[in-house]
Amino acid sequence: MLLSTLFPLLLTLLTLALAAAQQDLYKILQLDKSCNDRDLKRAYRTLSKKYHPDKSSGDEQKFLEVAEAYETLSDPTTRKIYDQYGHDGLANHKRTGGQQQHNPFDLFSQFFGGGSRQQPGVRRGHEMEVKLSVPLRDFYTGREVPFSLEKQQICDTCSGSGSADGHVETCTRCNGRGIIIQKHMLAPGMFQQVQSHCDVCGGQGKTIKRPCKTCNGSKVVRKVVDLVADIEPGMPRGHRVIFENEADEHPDYVAGNLNVVIDELSPKINTDETDEARKSRNDGAFFRRKGPDLYWKEVLSLREAWMGSWTRNLTHLDSHIVALSRGRGEVVQPGQVEAVRGEGMSIWHDGHVHEHDEHETGTHGTLYVEYVVVLPDQMERGMEKEFWAVWEKWRGKNGVDLGRDSGRPVPQGVRAELKDEL
Q1: Per residue in 91-100, pLDDT tens?
Q2: Which of 98, 143, 267, 360 could pair with 285 in a Cys bridge, judged by C-beta atoms 3.0 to 4.6 Å apart?
Q3: Closest Cα partner for 162 from 232, 90, 251, 222?
Q4: Integer Cα distance of 42 and 220 in angstroms
Q5: Where does residue 112 rank: exposed (0-12), middle (13-18), buried (19+ CB within 10 A)?
Q6: For 152-171, what is each residue's pLDDT tens digit?
Q7: Are 215 and 158 in contact (CB under 8 A)?
């Protein structure tokens, strides 16, 4: 008697415990119920990368939860069911075949690009290729770059049937085969069979009496879609980011892949910029890249190159400062190149989910600084006299015979003790 009384109570408590154990899908994505589609995508991009199992700090369970939450809330039908009936409503919807479960790693690849998984026997559409140009700074720091693309999509009005009322009939001319076979007499008793697309249904095997007003019976429309390309730090120029099944759509085949070629934006110098604005630029206009290394030209005056005692604060692509300097008496030759280790491009590790310790050696290439020495065009008369006197004084004491120093024979009639320069 006591057991029969307690059993319903225990069952109720167990049900409540299971319901409490199921996390709120909005909380999983760190959003509230007022979030829109853009908020959902932004949250998924951030959290899926954070918890991806291939990362050292990843969490596979949370990665799967994020994927399931996004997949449910990004679909208007399942989101409405969840908002009204919660997890029980979703479970019932799945039991009736209303929601299909997809591979969370395929969803991740569609967002960030990845390798394509070809399915044998499945007709695929053609691939598309677009170019996305970004400044050198984005190649150095990494960035998620949103872009828009116009492509062919399945008509939402008729769901890809092409019919306004949803009725599609079998073509009476080809009996639904899409092809017709005609016989041609070549000679008495000799015939040739020719196979061609049906001219009534256009090879579709189906006919529509009331075409959809949105797509005019073509089943597809041209629309602009918004995508995000993940530029990884150190990614090479010309790299292809692959978005699976994001090319032109059609109900008769699986959409092909969209290949986004990441190119470097050509540097542009605005002549209207002030000197201060030009100095503070860090988009890469003054850097040049070659593989994992960066190249920079630094201009020095004659005094700086010869006498030293100067400092330069070079603003890098991520706005951190690289200090260049020489002490007094340290000479810099024109065209001299200084190698600053660890200040080049980020070393790209193929794959956007791999993490590396920021203190790990070899994470960045080398920055090569070439020094350009600018000589004065003219001097005041008094300055010229003083410089000439100093030059003559020390040339006599410490001058070098350039011909002998370079190994050239001394011409006849020229005094061997003549010293050319310091």
Answers
A1: 887 777 655 5
A2: 267
A3: 251
A4: 28
A5: buried
A6: 998 988 888 888 887 888 88
A7: yes
